[in-house]
Amino acid sequence: MRVLGIESSCDETGIALYDTEKGLLAHALFSQIEMHAEYGGVVPELASRDHIQKTLPLMQQVLDEAGLQRKDIDAVAYTAGPGLVGALLVGAAIGRSLAWALNIPALPINHMEGHLLSPLLEANPPAFPFVSLLISGGHTLLVDVKGVGEYQLMGESIDDAVGEAFDKTAKMLGLGYPGGPALAALAEQGQEGAYVFPRPMTNRPGLDFSFSGLKTFALNTWHNSDKSEQAKADIALAFQTAAVETLVIKCRRALKQSGHKRLVVAGGVSANKSLRAALDAIPKVQVYYPQLQFCSDNGAMIAFAGAMRDQAMVMETEATFNVRSRWPLDELTAPVSA
Ligand code: ATP
Ligand code: MG
Ligand code: FE
């Protein structure tokens, strides 16, 4: 079965074709980052309009790359939430219309389930059960995963997501938007121990996170520094070290609590090298990641999540659809055999 995946929840248009026998056939991505950069963040209306322009050409590109035609698609999986409603509506409308026209099933996919399952696209996928650490621009989640659709929330951020904290700290240091990767790069020039930031919420039990204080700590440290390039790099390193160590402490706790021996990390921040090194150093635990290009938003993870749920695909008889700006992972259920 060949599943076409459509991702349009935020500022990336991602399209992919996944074959349940042959694996990923082709994928394409257009990032709107440059368009939103001058505003310092994503402008929802501009995002929607751009998805409208990019979705069909990218779909054609993916089909051409795979040497296939529309009639060769067996099902359409599209992101139905969480995300920006206008942006989601574009992918949902195009996906559902295409499925309707081709008389094939369409499946609404939860974007965070897409991230969660993305490491399973790799050559040596993790077996269930595992602990999932989802770290992106909008989420910081620890999930006990027993199978596809069997998700139990263990912990989450009570304020900023970790990616958001990277971005806000980067912006404050003048590193542009989205600054996560730039901040990580600058941290490499920092001197270890020049500043020490707190590890929020690690000195009490529980698996929730709080990252907004780190950003404020970085701001105060910057104002009290000599504002040199070195101070900037030292702050970047101190921030990253604190964020990474906090994530590692909570992951160890979640692994201990669940008894699982596998940790599966996904979302944009899972591209962070220093985080990967620190997680890989946890003893007696196997850690799995998506390949770098599939850490942040992409169509491959949506096509794949659709394929994982293929038994749950039903022919939609009504020409209606819905998207959700909020859609908690633990509302999902396991696919049931048709
Ligand atoms: P969500 O998935 O929660 O809706 P999103 O889709 O916007 O949010 P992603 O695309 O998964 O999030 O990830 C983007 C985030 O990852 C941004 O905050 C970005 O700064 C961060 N990021 C990307 N690379 C790195 C890195 N190397 N180090 C730290 N953060 C990074
Ligand atoms: Mg994005
Ligand atoms: Fe995302």
Mean pLDDT equals 95
**How many structurally independent domains?**
2
The structure class reads: alpha/beta
Percent strand equals 15-25%
CATH class of the largest domain equals: Alpha Beta
| Residues in helix, % | 25-40%
The number of E-state strands comes to 10
Span from first to last CA?
A: 15 Å
What sort of overall outline do the alpha carbons produce when their principal axes are compared? globular
Order of helices and strands: EEEHHEHEHEEEHHHHEHEH
Instruction: Report the CATH architecture of the largest domain.
Output: 2-Layer Sandwich
In the predicted model, the low-confidence regions spanning at least 5 consecutive residues are: none
Determine the number of helices (DSSP H or I, runs of at least 4 residues).
10
CATH superfamily of the largest domain: ATPase, nucleotide binding domain
**Which small-molecule ligands are present, each listed once?**
adenosine-5'-triphosphate, magnesium ion, fe (iii) ion
CATH topology of the largest domain: Nucleotidyltransferase, domain 5
